Amino acid sequence: MTMLLGPSTRTRSPLSRAADRTARRPVSAPPGEPVLDVVVPVFDEERDLAPSVRRLHAHLARALPLPFCITITDNASTDRTWEIARQLQEEFPEVRALHLEAKGRGWALASAWRSSRSPVLAYTDVDLSTDLAALLPLIAPLL
User: How many angstroms separate the CA atoms of 52 and 65, rounded?
Assistant: First the structure.
């Protein structure tokens, strides 16, 4: 039985065929480098930042069998958020803190993702409103 799941590779461009081959390979990172980087963009979140990052870190350490990174991206907070982000970076080797002078979630995400060395990038709000159990099934096909 043969199933055709898309256009024949013979009629597709070399670039499309190369993209298909790349898409089928699992991602990897150099030894010791994080495979997943979860960005947490924050603005004036001094109250919620530490508990949320600790909860996210505990979940990833328990559920993810690969190296990971949590990037806290502080976009121009006016409270103690940046200080707390730096403390969390000192507390956990998997946490990095990035400070931006300009506000905006898109700017925070783009800045963090551009500076990341991880092949798989994700983000979550600081309130962790998305169930953390949904993360591994989401990224598993990439790994």
Answer: 21
